[in-house]
Design goal:
Layout lengths: L3 E2 L2 E2 L14 H20 L5 H11 L2 H21 L7 H27 L5 H21 L2 H4 L7 H37 L1
Helix pairs in contact: 1-2, 1-3, 2-3, 2-4, 2-5, 2-7, 3-4, 4-5, 5-7
Length: 193
């Protein structure tokens, strides 16, 4: 399943390749920032960062995935504080930083999960990666609740609903990537004929 490059396994890079490698960072940034903007306006503080983390981790090397995740988090915060009226107080700023830390942790967790399950099929690998990324995201978000408050947002029903939302977003993002890949293949076939 994994590609071998100069004797080394290409860790999870073959999992999600809708565009040529040179365009992958730009494509990933465009896809996830547009998705983040849509999710931020639609769901406010329920932006599916775990799903975004899995896509970034599957498409890019870890440093680039972390950079894209940071950019997506900045878009989310700019929309929240600029357009959605998040309060301009220290508690909101610290929650914003916690969300950023959680999104970055989810990206690392997704990359580790994708590497650990490289021998599995894509569906299983992405399923385990979203589970690991979402668990890491929620744990990092829960950590500051003794200081910042908000522990009531971590009930099983809320966590489960947001987990389902992340899974649905991941499925949608993977579908977009597959459509782009198929369009590129079709275009190449037509240009060869």
């Amino acid at each position: 399943m994994s590609r071998v490059v100069r004797g080394l396994r290409s860790p999870a890079f073959d999992r999600l390749t809708p565009v040529k490698w040179g365009f992958a960072p730009s494509f990933c940034l465009l896809l996830l920032t547009a998705s983040c903007a849509l999710a931020s306006f639609a769901f406010a503080c329920a932006t599916p960062f775990a799903a975004f983390a899995v896509v970034a981790a599957a498409m890019l090397p870890l440093p680039a995935a972390l950079a894209v995740t940071t950019a997506v988090w900045i878009v989310n915060q700019a929309i929240g504080f600029g357009a959605l009226g998040y309060p301009h107080d220290l508690n909101a700023v610290f929650w914003g930083l916690a969300i950023g830390a959680a999104a970055l942790t989810a990206t690392v967790a997704a990359k580790l999960m994708l590497r650990a399950v490289a021998q599995f099929g894509k569906a299983a690998a992405f399923g385990l990666a979203i589970f690991g990324a979402y668990a890491a995201y929620e744990l990092v978000l829960f950590a500051p609740t003794p200081v910042l408050g908000g522990a009531g947002a971590f009930t099983p029903s809320i966590v489960g609903r947001l987990g389902s939302l992340n899974l649905l977003w991941l499925i949608g993002l993977l579908a977009i990537c597959e459509i782009v890949r198929l369009l590129a293949v079709t275009r190449r076939r037509h240009s060869l004929s």
